[in-house]
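job 3f2a | input accepted
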Amino acid sequence: MEDNSIIDAAGGSGELKISSRDISFLNETRKWAGFLAILGFVMTGLIVLAALFAGSLISYLGQVQGQAQAGNLPDGFGGVLSFVYVAGALLYFFPTLYLYRFSRQLKIALENKDSEALTTAFSNQKSMFKFIGIFTAITLGIYALAFIFGLLAGMLA
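job 3f2a | predicted structure (157 res):
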């Protein structure tokens, strides 16, 4: 079994050894990351298309059905809905881009035994997880606030 050693840059006394089995795991991870990134880009495109058509569809339905039936939706709701979809697509795009870059740089690193490309790959992976982590924390905070305001509204009603 072939071992590729990487010296611990943190100043520790140990070494990190990457075996050929580890390299095969990284290569398989790279393939799945690339697949998921491409799927993510396709989904981002579909969300943007939905944004374009959702705004137009809401506006069209408001005109066709008349003000009596479409009066439940405020004017400009189609534009607001389109904006929300585009914002969602943007939030989905960045972690997908980081995942794609991770996959491409990992491929270069494994094919060329390039430690700089490996560092760049792991940097992109870190950025993806950091983005998702921050977004998750913000989302949980919004849920907590909504829950608290819901309880307050229920107690005041």
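job 3f2a | The first helix runs from residue 20 to 70.
job 3f2a | closed
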